[in-house]
Amino acid sequence: MPRGRRGGRVSALEGGRGEEAPPAADAVPSVLWASGQQPEAAAELILLRGIFEIGRDSCDVVLSERALRWQPVQPERPTGFSNRPKSLKILLNPQSHKKEATQVYYGKVEPLLKLAGIKTDVTITECEGHALSLLKECELQGFDGVVCIGGDGSASEVAHALLLRAQKNAGMETDNILTPVRAQLPLGVIPAGSTNVLAHSLHGISHVVTATLHIIMGHVQPVDVCTFSTTGKFLRFGFSAMFGFGGRALALAEKHRWMSPSQRMDFALIKALAKLKPEDCEISFLPFNSSQNLEERRAQGSPKSDCNDQWQMIQGQFLNVSIMAIPCLCSVAPRGLAPNTRLNNGSMALIIARNTSRPEFIKHLKRYASVKNQVQ
């Protein structure tokens, strides 16, 4: 419906009342008009009805035989999502996955955030470690969360920075962190990398729009993290780590980022397999007591095992040692690299591959691609 000229009939009827309409017509909600419950106007023949722009407002417009009426549309606010963010700090890694992260954000994510009325402050990171140094000093008051657009490396760096900031704000000694405090702000992860293990584990799928909608709705999922340290020195927070074959393969893939993601990983796996060798290790661990109620332990202030639990130790030659606090789902491992762990059960998976022949180890790796015959 075209907008009327100034002084024309449309602008003369502004406010929703027709010249021949009954005096009480404008007091009846438009939803009743559609259902035919308006007593005096029910017999009128409606010629046209729709949502039209009048001035700067969207209005429910009804044109009948006798009058033209309209009423501003009041958008309904979603209920049940009291934690929906209103302002977000965005950290964007432009180098992620063929340098497509910028296009992902401005083409898919930003339009949805604007539709949801969420204010954003975008920082494009310039190099590895930039997000860490930025979040050490950045003023985060006024933000409801931090969102990372990038791959697993970017997301892990931002998570580490937020947790490290929380420890310092709480006055904790970072070189001796036994029970770290939570980060003050939640971290949203938009998958824009090669494997996107973290986003895949969080949402069950590596999908940009799905991740964005979870952020818009304010869905918060607690996630376990590990602390990695050397003797007397804290290194970093993280979701997983690999030693031996896995660590060497990841390091090789990182050095060849000029290749495409699939070529880079295939090259790294083949070269690491060609130089496959065991490492002498001594591993100590506390077995996870799944029968103990985790909520009870958390209510007591710590998700750690009881002091009565006994540390166990194993020694030997191992081809690979993996430590994972999340399932680590990805396209090549549909059930995850650690299928028996959960996002927030207060434990981490320890997966050890003892020394064996190269063909047997390759069989072990192929099991990750299977939905049925995977690690038990």
Low-confidence stretches: 1-41
Strand-and-helix sequence, N→C? HHEEEEHHEHEHEHHEEEHHEHEEH
Radius of gyration: 29 Å
Please state the structural category: alpha/beta
Q: What profile does the largest beta sheet have?
A: 4 strands, parallel
Description:
The chain is α/β, with parallel strands linked by helices and 376 residues long. Helices cover 30% and strands 23% of the residues. It has twelve helices and 13 strands. The radius of gyration is 29 Å and the shape is elongated. The protein starts with 8 loop residues before the first helix and ends in a 9-residue tail after the last helix. Mean pLDDT is 80; it is low at 1-41.
Question: Brief overview, please?
Answer:
This protein has helices spanning 9-12, 30-35, 96-99, 101-115, 130-137, 152-169, 197-203, 208-216, 245-255, 261-274, 294-299, 358-367; strands at 46-54, 57-64, 68-72, 87-92, 119-124, 145-150, 187-191, 226-230, 233-238, 240-244, 279-285, 312-324, 349-354.
